[in-house]
């Protein structure tokens, strides 16, 4: 039995694969129209829960195996793609950090799936919700268990897309879809950082595998550049300054999704990434100092803004960002064990607190203690906190504004040149006055029209131009020749001659 | 909104604001959710008119969509006969006259109703192009021919543009705001921006205890607070509104002045101001309504602060509606001006804007068609391209080229819709091409004119038919039940419950379990209006209908000798709650303690969450036991008697009731329910309440007659009064003899998990112990059977459960953190019976009927029924109408789905973190509700009821205006008649054949949909 546990670590790929499979199945069911009515909910929820539970149990068993067999460490399951001397591997790194955080996430994931199955009963988006939730569960396990940067990136993206889809869960509300887009675009900044670093890793190190990457002796300057990309990704995902606003716009989804994404699991992914890179970070005190500073600023920011919040979800969100900021401080100070422990406990508590957000009315009975008097009376700081230091608006002005301007220009280009060139429906004009039915617009249309015109001309000239056309005359001549030939061949003497010729040839 | 123009603006404003109380949602902060008529402000109007007015004003749908009615029609729950009756009920005349040869008006109207609503014809072009050729399509060409001949010839596009623009402009201040007008032009909704700017300030100002830090200027009112904050706000610059910040800084301190200046620059015509303010307030109905509610209830915040537990409460912020309107209109003007600047290049005033687009008809038409009409793709793309180009600030020249084709499309759209209407009608009338050919254009015109004439009445007819169908069933059931001779055994116990429709089930099952139990129903405060303060309550709360202000306060006190235990209990409980408070608040906002508390609580929280997910009922039960063990139990009693008559606590509320007052309450209540003789050995007064987890709308499930709280204390107080020797002795003098062999006990029924909490059981003398044990067991049995019946409508409940399974299911359901439907509340309520139980005992009524006990024999002058109608009428109507409106338009009158709700400021819910405040009932509560008006059947003669209606203007309003339907069952003959406001009393003569089953469970087993009434033979023993 204990021996069996040893090889269990090789099955770890099932942990992200099972929820992914569930997501695909639920999605297919919905596509094929098999998901409607109360009865259909059972299967969707059951599949999702089964996948989440199986992932959890597998992780627990792997955890158990550690007692007898030690940490499984880096496991390469297979090669995804390979070229020359570098490989994109399907590999997992199962150490204390990965296993503890992953097990906890799987547990929270399973509980949230169970919670949602009841909570979302008869919602129009029930099946869609579970599909996305399973996608997220798969993505986050990829991030946590990944043995290389590439797999982490895949998981990272899956989480990002799942988050986008659930913020826009109530897609009928323009605000919800707008916020989903805002969160998505902000997260692309982090993805750019991640891709940048992975690109550098491929170029300088030639491998994405964590053990190689973390131990590689790079010049400090190069290492610094490499780490910065990862750090940006971490800051965005964990909503640290200046990227905090996206997470506050992300509260549009159903309560359990807010709980698992922004309250509990996904918001810690950035912290996890930095913990994973600890050996690299340890060589770079200046980067650590930067993280410390960002963490401190974020904590101060979230604490101040949290004081003035009036709705439960935003209030809890700032509280979460505050403590995540503290984790960055801990990492900046090099206290990674403390950060890991804090991360795990914080995840657990926020899952509970967010799921209980609707209960706030009965859980508390009193207004919380006001801040100290010097702060309480400061009208400017109050305004700044209420408006969240205008970060949101600044983001829109500085990022979305220029992006929109570019988009407008591209659109103008498309409308004025590309659309004209390609042609638009209903815009067609007759090119030949004698053929008003043939309407075309754009280059492909014109090309097609002139091709057809040419063929038409050929047809007209050769075949259809009434009696006396060239083709008709030629054909008629050919027909007469053939008929004459046939008549000749039918006469006996020529027939005999032909038979004899045949014999001569045979002999 | 008419006010004298001579008055200064300040006073006129007060009039206008007073008027707003009629049209804005009047929902109290969510902790005190009480059912009330959503359209209470329109109650002075007849039902149909009120709904039409509300629909015009708010844009909400006041009736079920027609396809829902059509679905009920195809399910057989509305019949053709019902529709015919409804046509007459609504007051349509000359139904027999022929519109075209061979077609009576009645048949035509029925056909148009069954043809579906004209709105759903939007999909017609796609349908037309579909490959299948339906009979409908074969009719269509001829129909369009016919309508083409009748329709008015299209006009020039310039005229069309001028006409539409004028129409839009005329609506400003009458039925829309400038924002709405600009939305037609630009497709951009300024309200989105206004809401996000306003929402944070509003929530911060109204907050009842979530935020730790309040606006330093909030004690000077909302306008001052907003001004102080907004003049520091850098967002104006970022929103490209430079200069606004300085302008705010220089605003006068008086909101009325600001309001006047801004209104004047928006609309020079003062006559339009009240209408404009009304529109403005209605654009964010939730926030405006809450603000106005707080404005009208100035004591609320201080009362709420007074009940807080420590000194953290600061002075409550004053709330004045004028402040809100001033800020709202300031934002409206500036943001609209900015949008106009982007549209036209200059920040034009409204009058200039009017002139501008009069001069640019082509541009107007393109913009209008793009944002208001259903355009085909090519026109859409072209129009959008022009608008986008103009938004980029480029010179656009294509307006005039596009306008004619758009105008043609706009006109053609109307014509197709007409033809389509005719085709659907022809199909419904089973007309072929031959009949259509026989029809000439004039005939078609007449047909369509009839259809147009009934258009505003369509939903009304459907509703009347829907109600009529249920009424027929109910009248049949009552008549069939009256034919049976009832002979019930001498009662071993009498149980008085709340009139609540949910208790109909409990009563029925109790009678089935124990035929020798007699049950009564009454408004759940049992005639005892009081302030109640339990041993663990920090403040008192009113337990009586919202319209009543109690004059007595009753406290729960430890029994003599238990004072020390009580002190220990309070101390330990206080410690526990303080730690809980510290945990939840600390992890939210404390810098140092927060992370520490998080670390301590993380693991236990996850364990609890797992337990709550796997075994919610077990966890809730264990938690309750542990809490009780920790706090310690104290034996308590209620201090019903005033120590000194007239001794008052603060604000003229007397402590307890004097003997005379107790006598009056006991006598009055017993007479009301008709229990004045034949007292059983045990009389149980059974209040009710509900409980659920993770549910901001918690109190919507509680007792409506107790202001959305639990009715148990009232039952307990009543029983204590009725057991007092002094009261009983005086009652004898009043002709009510309660024998010494009779004892009153009290309990509370939990409508969520169907459990019963008994009060003061250890005080019951030994002589009654045995009978009490029997009653306990019988009631528990009945509750379990009731749980079985409830399970039939719950999708996640086991199918055909045993009583114990059902009980287990509902217990788990209530304790489940994830459960958005802890119980179904009043959903499906539809009728109320006021009369003896013999009227309805033995009928299966599917938990749809409020049952109010009343004995017509002891009420010759109708005084008692008058009081019952006055007390129960508004409560029942409030519940039924709130469910009605939240069902018919859950987006506007209700608060949408619970899953995205976000509790705000402890007074309401938003969707996500930035939306209007949502009022009304959540979708999960009304999902299975069948929206109809309450049908009140009174066991009394029509003549008596007519007199009462004449005496009571309040009832006149409810019944005469058709907010509830009234019917009478003659106490002696059991003949039924219903009251029609237009035609008076209409005697009923219908079929009274009902299915018969032995017990309720035989009728509902395996059914999950709505069920018709049935006769229960078992109960007829």
Structure, explained:
The complex is a heterodimer of chains A (507) and B (1021). Chain A has 507 residues and is mostly helical. Chain A is built from 23 helices and 4 strands. The model of chain A has no long low-confidence stretch (mean pLDDT 88). In chain B, strands 5, 6, 7, 8, 9 and 10 form a 6-stranded mixed beta sheet that branches. In chain B, strands 16-14-19-20-21-22 form a 6-stranded mixed beta sheet, sandwiched between helices. A 5-stranded mixed beta sheet of chain B has the order 4-3-11-12-13, with helices on both faces. Chain B is globular. Chain B is of the alpha/beta class and 1021 residues long. Helices cover 51% and strands 10% of the residues of chain B. Classes of the chains: A mainly alpha (507), B alpha/beta (1021). At the A-B interface, helix 4, helix 7, helix 14, helix 15 and helix 16 of A face helix 10, helix 11, helix 21, helix 27 and helix 28 of B.
Report the largest inter-chain contact: A-B, 100 and 93 residues
- The counted number of beta strands of chain A is 4
Overall shape of chain B: it is globular
| Structural class by sheet pairing and helices of chain B | alpha/beta
Number of helices of chain B: 39
The class by helix and strand makeup of chain A works out as mainly alpha
Task: Name the poorly predicted regions of chain B.
Answer: 119-132
Our count of helices of chain A gives 23
Helix fraction bin of chain B: 40-55%
Cα-to-Cα separation, first versus last residue of chain A: 88 Å
Strand order of the largest sheet of chain A: 1-2
**Into which percentage range does the β-strand content of chain A fall?**
under 5%
Topology pattern of chain A, helix = H, strand = E: HHHEEHHHHHHHHHHHHHHHHHEEHHH
Average pLDDT level of chain B: 87
């Amino acid at each position: 039995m204990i021996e069996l546990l040893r090889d269990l670590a090789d099955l770890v790929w099932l942990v992200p694969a099972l929820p992914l499979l569930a997501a695909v199945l639920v999605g297919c069911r919905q596509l094929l129209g098999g998901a409607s009515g109360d009865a259909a909910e059972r299967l969707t929820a059951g599949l999702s829960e089964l996948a989440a539970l199986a992932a959890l149990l597998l992780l627990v068993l792997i955890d158990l195996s550690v007692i007898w067999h030690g940490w499984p460490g880096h496991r390469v399951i297979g090669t995804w793609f390979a070229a020359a001397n570098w490989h994109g591997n399907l590999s997992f790194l199962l150490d204390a950090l990965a296993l503890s955080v992953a097990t906890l996430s799987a547990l929270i994931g399973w509980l949230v799936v169970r919670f949602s199955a009841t909570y979302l009963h008869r919602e129009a988006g029930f099946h869609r919700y579970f599909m996305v939730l399973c996608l997220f569960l798969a993505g986050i396990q990829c991030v946590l268990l990944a043995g290389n940067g590439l797999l982490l990136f895949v998981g990272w993206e899956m989480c990002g897309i799942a988050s986008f889809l659930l913020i826009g869960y109530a897609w009928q509300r323009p605000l919800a879809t707008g916020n989903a887009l805002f969160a998505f675009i902000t997260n692309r900044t982090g993805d750019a950082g991640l891709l940048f670093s992975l690109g550098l890793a491929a170029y300088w190190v030639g491998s994405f595998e964590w053990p190689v990457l973390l131990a590689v002796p790079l010049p400090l300057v190069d290492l610094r550049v490499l780490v910065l990309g990862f750090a940006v990704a971490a800051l965005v995902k964990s909503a640290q300054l200046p990227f905090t606003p996206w997470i506050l716009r992300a509260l549009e989804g159903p309560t359990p999704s807010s709980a698992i994404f922004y309250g509990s699991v996904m918001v810690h992914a950035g912290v996890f990434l930095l913990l994973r890179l600890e050996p690299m970070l340890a060589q770079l005190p200046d980067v650590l100092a930067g993280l410390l500073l960002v963490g401190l600023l974020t904590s101060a920011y979230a604490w101040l803004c949290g004081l003035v919040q009036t709705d439960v979800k935003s209030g809890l969100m700032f509280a979460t960002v505050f403590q995540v900021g503290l984790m960055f401080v801990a990492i900046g100070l090099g206290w990674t064990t403390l950060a890991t422990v804090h991360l795990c406990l914080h995840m657990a508590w926020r899952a509970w607190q967010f799921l209980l957000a609707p209960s706030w009315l009965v859980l508390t009975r009193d207004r919380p203690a006001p801040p100290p008097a010097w702060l309480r009376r400061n009208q400017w700081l109050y305004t700044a906190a209420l408006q969240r230091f205008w970060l949101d608006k600044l983001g829109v002005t500085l990022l979305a504004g220029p992006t929109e301007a570019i988009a407008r220009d591209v659109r103008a280009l498309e409308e004025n040149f590309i659309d004209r060139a390609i042609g638009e429906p209903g815009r067609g004009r007759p090119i030949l006055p004698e053929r008003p039915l043939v309407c075309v617009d754009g280059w492909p249309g014109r090309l097609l029209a002139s091709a057809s015109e040419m063929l038409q001309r050929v047809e007209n000239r050769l075949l259809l131009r009434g009696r006396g056309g060239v083709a008709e005359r030629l054909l008629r001549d050919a027909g007469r020749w053939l008929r004459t030939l046939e008549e000749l061949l039918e006469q006996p003497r020529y027939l005999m001659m032909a038979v004899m010729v045949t014999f001569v040839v045979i002999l | 909104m008419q006010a004298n123009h001579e008055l200064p603006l300040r006073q006129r404003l007060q009039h206008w604001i007073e008027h707003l109380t009629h049209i804005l949602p009047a929902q109290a902060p969510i902790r005190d959710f009480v059912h009330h008529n959503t359209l209470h402000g329109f109650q002075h109007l007849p039902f149909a008119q009120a709904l039409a007015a509300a629909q015009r004003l708010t844009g909400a749908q006041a009736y079920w969509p027609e396809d829902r009615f059509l679905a009920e029609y195809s399910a057989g729950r509305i019949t053709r006969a019902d529709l015919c009756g409804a046509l007459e009920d609504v007051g349509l005349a000359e139904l027999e006259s022929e519109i075209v040869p061979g077609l009576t008006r009645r048949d035509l109207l029925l056909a148009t109703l069954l043809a579906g609503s004209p709105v759903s014809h939007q999909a017609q072009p796609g349908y037309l192009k579909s490959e299948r050729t339906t009979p409908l399509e074969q009719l269509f060409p001829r129909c369009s021919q016919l309508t083409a001949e009748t329709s008015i010839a299209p006009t020039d596009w310039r005229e069309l543009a001028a006409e539409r623009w004028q129409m839009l402009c005329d609506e400003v201040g009458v039925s829309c705001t400038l924002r709405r007008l600009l939305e037609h032009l630009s497709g951009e909704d300024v309200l989105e921006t206004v809401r996000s700017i306003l929402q944070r300030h509003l929530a911060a100002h109204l907050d009842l205890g979530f935020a730790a830090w309040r606006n330093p200027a909030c004690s000077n009112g909302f306008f001052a607070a907003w001004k102080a904050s907004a003049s520091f706000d850098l967002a104006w610059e970022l929103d490209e509104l430079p200069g606004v910040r300085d302008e705010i800084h220089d605003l006068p301190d008086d909101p009325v002045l600001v309001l006047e200046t801004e209104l004047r620059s928006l609309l020079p015509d003062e006559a339009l101001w009240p209408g404009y303010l009304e529109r403005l307030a209605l654009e964010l109905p939730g926030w405006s309504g809450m603000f106005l509610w707080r404005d009208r209830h100035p004591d609320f915040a201080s009362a709420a602060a007074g009940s807080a537990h420590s000194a953290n409460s600061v002075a409550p912020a004053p709330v004045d509606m004028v402040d809100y309107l001033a800020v709202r209109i300031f934002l409206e003007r500036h943001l609209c001006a900015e949008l106009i600047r982007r549209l036209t290049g200059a920040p034009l005033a409204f009058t200039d804007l009017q002139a501008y687009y009069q001069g640019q008809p082509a541009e107007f038409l393109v913009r209008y068609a793009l944002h208001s009409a259903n355009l085909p793709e090519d026109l859409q793309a072209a129009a959008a391209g022009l608008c986008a180009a103009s938004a980029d600030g480029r010179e656009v020249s294509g307006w005039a080229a596009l306008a004619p084709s758009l105008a043609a499309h706009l006109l053609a759209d109307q014509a197709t819709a007409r033809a389509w209407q005719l085709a659907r009608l022809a199909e419904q009338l089973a007309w072929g091409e031959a009949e259509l050919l026989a029809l000439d254009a004039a005939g078609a015109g007449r047909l369509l004119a009839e259809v147009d004439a009934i258009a505003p009445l369509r939903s009304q007819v459907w509703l009347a038919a829907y109600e009529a169908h249920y009424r027929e069933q109910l009248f049949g059931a009552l008549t069939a039940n009256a034919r049976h001779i009832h002979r019930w055994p001498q009662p071993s116990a009498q149980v008085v419950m709340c009139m609540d429709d949910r208790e109909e089930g409990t009563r029925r099952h109790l009678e089935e379990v124990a035929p020798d139990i007699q049950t009564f129903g009454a408004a759940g405060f049992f005639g005892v209006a009081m302030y109640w303060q339990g041993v663990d309550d920090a403040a008192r709360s009113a337990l009586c209908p919202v319209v009543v202000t109690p004059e007595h306060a009753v406290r729960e006190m430890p029994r003599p000798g238990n004072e020390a235990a009580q002190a220990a209990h309070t101390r330990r409980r206080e410690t526990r709650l303080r730690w809980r408070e510290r945990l939840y608040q600390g992890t939210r906002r404390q810098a140092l303690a927060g992370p520490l508390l998080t670390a301590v609580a993380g693991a236990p929280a996850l364990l609890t969450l797992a337990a709550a997910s796997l075994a919610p009922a077990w966890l809730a039960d264990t938690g309750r036991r542990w809490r009780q063990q920790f706090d310690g139990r104290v034996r308590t009693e209620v201090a019903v008697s005033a120590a000194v008559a007239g001794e008052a606590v603060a604000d003229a509320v007397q402590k307890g009731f004097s003997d005379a007052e107790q006598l009056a309450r006991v006598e009055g209540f017993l007479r009301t329910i008709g229990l004045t003789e034949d007292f059983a050995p045990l009389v149980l007064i059974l209040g009710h309440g509900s409980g659920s987890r993770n549910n901001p709308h918690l109190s919507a499930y509680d007792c409506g007659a107790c202001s959305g709280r639990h009715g148990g204390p009232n039952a307990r107080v009543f029983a204590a009064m009725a057991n007092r020797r002094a009261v009983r002795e005086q009652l004898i003098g009043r002709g009510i003899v309660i024998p010494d062999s009779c004892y009153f006990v009290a309990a509370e029924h939990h409508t969520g998990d169907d459990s019963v909490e008994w009060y003061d059981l250890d005080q019951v003398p030994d002589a009654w112990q045995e009978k009490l044990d029997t009653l306990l067991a019988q009631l528990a049995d009945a509750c379990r059977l009731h749980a079985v019946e409830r399970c039939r409508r719950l999708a996640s409940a086991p199918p055909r459960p045993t009583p114990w399974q059902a009980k287990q299911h509902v217990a788990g359901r209530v304790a489940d953190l994830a459960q958005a439907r802890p119980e179904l509340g009043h959903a499906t309520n539809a009728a109320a019976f006021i009369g003896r139980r013999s009227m309805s005992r033995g009928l299966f009524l599917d938990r749809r009927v409020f049952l109010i006990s009343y004995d017509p024999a002891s009420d010759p002058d109708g005084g008692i029924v008058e009081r019952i109608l006055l007390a129960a009428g508004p409560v029942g109507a409030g519940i039924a109408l709130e469910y009605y409106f939240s069902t018919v338009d859950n987006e506007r009158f209700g608060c949408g789905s619970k899953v995205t709700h976000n509790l705000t400021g402890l007074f309401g819910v938003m969707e996500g973190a930035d939306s209007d405040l949502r009022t009304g009932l959540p979708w999960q509560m009304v999902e299975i509700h069948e929206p109809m008006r309450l049908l009140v059947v009174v066991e009394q003669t029509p003549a008596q009821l007519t007199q009462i209606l004449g005496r009571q203007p309040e009832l006149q309003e409810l019944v005469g205006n058709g907010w509830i339907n009234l019917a009478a069952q003659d106490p002696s003959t059991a003949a039924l008649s219903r009251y029609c406001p237009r035609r008076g009393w209409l005697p009923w003569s219908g079929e009274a054949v009902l299915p018969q089953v032995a017990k309720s469970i035989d009728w509902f087993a395996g059914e999950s949909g709505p069920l018709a009434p049935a006769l229960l033979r078992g109960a007829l023993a």
